Amino acid sequence: MGVRGSSSAIRLATAAKALFACLLIGGPAVGYVFQKRQLDELGKQIHAGEVRLEAIRTQNKLDRANLAWLLLPQNLQQRLLSKGIRMEPARPEQVVRLNEPPAAGRAAVVANHTPGKAPSP
Hints:
Number of helices: 3
Number of strands: 0
Distance between the termini: 111 Å
Helix content: over 70%
Radius of gyration: 40 Å
Shape: rod-shaped
Low-confidence stretches: none
Structural class: mainly alpha
Mean pLDDT: 84
Oligomer: single chain
């Protein structure tokens, strides 16, 4: 019985060592595969974001060109006429001009300004 008991103990120890070796090698391997999948997923997300960014930049470029075209004076005039709105330039007596102090005067006003109080002219 003593020989049999030690034989099963040796088998158990060998099985435990084999299991430990498998865990020692298999654990990092599973971690590596997990990390690799995470990297692939992040790479796909980054690529999708870059594609979306490029599409948005292209759309912005088109929108800027469209806005520039819409703001051309001849296009504005044409749109107003098509809607039956007649506009003419302002007469000189309708224009109000505001005089600004010279640049040095403005700098002095800003330099003497106290936060919380209105600037003095």
